Write a sequence for this structure.
């Protein structure tokens, strides 16, 4: 990782932590902000896919599918921005799917690690339990905007802290001729 | 390739090349261990994680696909399983990102395979085993890249198996792909498992030959398909032919490593060494079955007259675990770790020198000193001792 990427990762992570705090402290503002962010993320993702098609996908056999996907994603992004403030169920649904998948993967990792007698299986299992616990909280509080917001804030803070930690990690390989 | 070729066939090649039974077993063990040495296993024995030569499915499922994660994945898969063919290949594409991925496509007889073999010259048997794994995989994994990439590794649904009727006459049968890992491949109906189509460029579903399932790993199969990178040109992959070339190239390379040949050159195969058994080897390679370990084992035992003990992942781990810190590097497991880091370092440096950042930064110790992962201090220590 070069110096610019490191600094950029730290800067964006600190920014995300700050936004999470604002969302947590001012929930009324937070929910509208959350849907707006989701819409913007989808829009940016669509634009990125379009650039991906123009730079790489255009050379791929059957690459035109990437172009269609980019246009659809941009369209959904614009739609989400236009309805922001009314689609909290969709965000909750997204959380449930994301954490359920992450939880199942962590449990499988724990089982595989235990099979080869590696000590890391306990950490993996804890991660799995944590993820599945969030799924359970989402399911119990199916329509609660405040719970959804708390989970969103927590996830953003955790992923930002992880990104900062990774930015400080040494990653160069040593070569001896 | 699988255990049948990486372990049993490598044993046979080593024995034919002139190694003793015991040395051939060590080389074969090291060659097969490349497919087992994951970060999870290294954590278990408290060994440096930078020596990982493979990733478990669960590790991959959980792997981050940010820049650091991708570089780690690419270092492992490009160094040991998908050795790049031409890091300076001419590509008609304006995007550097595309050119960098294209240049990691694996094929046999690259400059890097010569470097890989030379890296094992005058070194331990573990280094020889690793080099043989890398060499064998350049044949099996040809036309795929050891980095997650949809635009390179994806495959079209136009996938046909070329089946021999027995009298030399062939016919084509469409291959069906399933994504359920709980079921087995079924060659009798040309039904195989592959990874799920994922539209994300850097998804691990698009790593290596995942989209073509285990087809590249089966010695018997002959198939035709459209690779994502190939501009609609059909690839004809004749595994029985490729595998016998791999076998004869390994014999040639191991004769060089023993000092029985002065130079190692690309595109040379020691077919003379197997003339006595060529029919039998071809018969093993062409048999329509998912695992040919029993046949290769029997052939190995016929060659040496001694038992070829089955591969056991736990061998050598206790010896490494019980050794004192100073003596760990002198154990078989310790030597494997150093050889693996040496190979990874060499490939990473070659990719980095070509201006391609997909395997990350490489720091030349002799010019800039130690500025990198602390795991690589092992190599520095050896360098300074020598």
């Amino acid at each position: 990782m070069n110096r610019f990427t490191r600094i950029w990762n730290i800067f964006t992570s600190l920014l995300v932590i700050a936004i999470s705090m604002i969302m947590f402290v001012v929930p009324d503002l937070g929910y509208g902000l959350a849907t707006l962010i989701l819409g913007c993320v989808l829009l940016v993702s669509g634009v990125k896919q379009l650039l991906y098609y123009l730079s790489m996908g255009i050379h791929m056999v059957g690459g035109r599918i990437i172009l269609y996907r980019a246009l659809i994603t941009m369209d959904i992004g614009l739609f989400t921005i236009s309805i922001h403030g009314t689609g909290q169920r969709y965000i909750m649904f997204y959380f449930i799917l994301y954490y359920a998948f992450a939880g199942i993967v962590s449990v499988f990792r724990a089982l595989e690690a235990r099979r080869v007698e590696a000590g890391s299986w306990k950490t993996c299992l804890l991660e799995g339990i944590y993820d599945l616990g969030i799924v359970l909280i989402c399911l119990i509080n199916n329509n609660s905007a405040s719970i959804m917001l708390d989970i969103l804030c927590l996830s953003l803070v955790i992923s930002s802290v992880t990104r900062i930690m990774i930015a400080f990690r040494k990653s160069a390989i040593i070569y001896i001729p | 390739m699988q255990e049948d070729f990486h372990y049993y066939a490598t044993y046979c090649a080593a024995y034919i090349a002139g190694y003793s039974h015991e040395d051939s077993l060590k080389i074969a063990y090291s060659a097969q261990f490349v497919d087992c040495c994951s970060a999870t296993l290294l954590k278990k024995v408290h060994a440096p994680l930078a020596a990982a030569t493979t990733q478990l499915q669960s590790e991959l499922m959980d792997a981050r696909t940010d820049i650091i994660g991708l570089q780690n994945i690419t270092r492992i898969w490009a160094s040991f399983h998908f050795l790049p063919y031409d890091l300076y290949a001419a590509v008609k594409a304006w995007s550097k990102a595309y050119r960098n991925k294209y240049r990691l496509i694996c094929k046999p007889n690259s400059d890097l395979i010569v470097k890989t073999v030379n890296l094992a010259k005058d070194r331990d048997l573990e280094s020889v085993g690793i080099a043989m794994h890398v060499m064998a995989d350049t044949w099996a994994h040809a036309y795929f890249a050891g980095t997650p990439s949809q635009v390179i590794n994806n495959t079209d649904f136009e996938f046909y198996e070329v089946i021999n009727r027995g009298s030399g006459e062939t016919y084509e049968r469409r291959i069906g792909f399933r994504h359920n890992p709980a079921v087995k491949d079924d060659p009798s109906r040309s039904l195989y498992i592959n990874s799920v189509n994922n539209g994300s460029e850097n998804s691990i579903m698009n790593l290596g030959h995942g989209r073509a399932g285990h087809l590249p790993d089966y010695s018997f199969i002959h198939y035709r398909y459209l690779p994502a990178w190939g501009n609609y040109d059909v690839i004809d992959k004749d595994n029985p032919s490729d595998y016998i070339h791999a076998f004869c190239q390994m014999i040639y390379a191991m004769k060089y490593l023993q000092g029985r040949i002065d130079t190692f050159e690309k595109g040379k195969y020691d077919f003379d060494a197997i003339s006595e058994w060529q029919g039998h080897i071809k018969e093993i390679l062409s048999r329509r079955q998912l695992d040919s370990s029993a046949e290769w084992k029997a052939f190995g035992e016929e060659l040496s007259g001694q038992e070829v003990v089955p591969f056991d992942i736990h061998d050598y781990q206790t010896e490494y675990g019980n050794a004192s810190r100073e003596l760990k590097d002198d154990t078989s497991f310790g030597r494997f770790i150093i050889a693996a880091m040496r190979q990874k370092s060499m490939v990473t440096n070659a990719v980095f020198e070509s201006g391609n950042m997909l395997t990350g930064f490489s720091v030349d110790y002799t010019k800039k000193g130690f500025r990198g992962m602390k795991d690589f201090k092992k190599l520095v220590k050896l360098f300074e001792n020598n």
In short: Chain B is about 45% helix and 10% strand. Chain B touches chain A through 61 residues (CB under 8 Å). The CA atoms of residues 353 and 362 of chain B lie 8 Å apart.
